[in-house]
Amino acid sequence: MTQPVLIAGAGPVGLMLAYELGLAGVPAVVLERAATPPAPEQSRGMAVNGAVVELLEQRGLMDAIRPFGMSFPRAHFGHIWLDPTTVGQRHPFNFAVPHALLQRVLEERAVKLGAQVRRDAEVVGVRQDADGVEADVVGADGARATVRGAYLVGCDGAGSRVRALAGIGFSGADVPFLGILADVRVEPGDPMFAQIGVNQYQNGICTVAPIGPQALRVMTGEFDTEPGVESAPVPPEDFAAAYARITGTALTGHPVRLSYWTTATRLADQYRTGRVFLAGDAAHVHFPLGGQALSTGLEDAVNLGWKLAAAHGGWAPPGLLDTYHGERHPVGARACRTTSAQTALMHPMSRVAPLREIFAELTAFPDVNAYLVNMVGGLDVRYPAESGGELVGRRLADVPLTTGAGSTSVAKLLTSGLGVLLDLGAGVTLPDGFDDRIDAVSAEPSDEIPASAVLLRPDGRVAWASPATAGGLAGNGLAEAAGQWFGKSMMVGVAA
Questions:
Q1: Residue 388: pLDDT over 50
Q2: What is the CA radius of gyration of the chain?
């Protein structure tokens, strides 16, 4: 099949998907409504949580992003602070970087792998048949065109046109909430610097983050208040009034860029209908807290990318594409549920303040702190597994490894986008006929990996694991797992 995969939306999720497809040699065409990419100063999001850091390390992308941001060793649940440094995860806390810079890096890498990014191209029509999908696109000048592909993935945001055209419901509720985002020019020593961080007040929330030596990103939010129209301009005096209502202090800086932001909690009824898929905000939206939206969306892309590549290449086992909904829809539902739980702790303060005090006391217990850090960091996701032990369905941590060729790590083994059979002393070998889909690597045993061998899917999830003391049973189930996730052996039907 030579038709490309069509992707609607050139945000981080759509571009991550294009990159994943490029790793597998699958052509991708990204259709983006906007004529130009956003500038870094236009980024609304800054938080990249632990799960995203793991994904980016896994694909060798983090080194390109690290110079533009910084580690942020804090985490919170409903603006109740947690301690991620005690959890023991390799990436337990956030990295702060404008999402537009992340988007730029992903686009550069995807294009290098052959992806086409067509801007000023809005999807306005979708038709699918047994062999592919057609997308009607229109530009700002009204010119129309039809693009055909093998599959279409809607990564086009909360107002997804692809989702609507595919007839997929978006269940949930809008919440009355007035949010205003402002970039504020300040002088050195301005009192607003004392408010840097996430601040919960009686009348709402106010987050302040530095974006330059004399500039702050300020986001205010008031619950049970009629929202603004996101496309409408925000009068500076309205922002100043909101800031004063929430913080009880006067705005001292000068706002230079203002916009409304709203929130809703919604989940697509299904992530797939035929050859049309949804990912990112097109599939799930919720209150923005700690980078969970970006994390959930990028995980969608990495989960779906290799499965589409398998189907495109003709080696996907039966039902592989259906596992995308089966694995990711519950994760989207959980993100909606956990963020709703956090907002329930944030208002109205006159009623929830005692609950917040008790909850803060509970977070002092190490197990509670660890549970919540892993939850908000997206580090606790495990896909359903019928058998295979505790590791199966989880992402294997980025553990350092020693091989005959020298030092490496779990993440470095996954940068190619192939599956990996990692032998840690069990003496297992890769079943014949999977060399084009699975790399076989032998390494010294690691105390951090409770197994003598593991089979990793291209997304870094464990598909099979042999117990650390398996003895002669070390290879039991390996061939079945390889067939379940990587299709038929290329040796099937070949004469001996």
A1: yes
A2: 24
